[in-house]
Amino acid sequence: MIIPCEVAVKSVVPAVKALMAKQLVEKHGLKQDEVAELLGISQSAVSKYTRKVRGYVIKIDEVQELEPSIQKMINLVVNGSPERTEFLKAFCQTCMVIRKTNLMCQFCQQADPNIKTEKCNFCKSINFSEKRI
Question: For the chain, how many structural domains are there in total?
Answer without folding.
Answer: 1
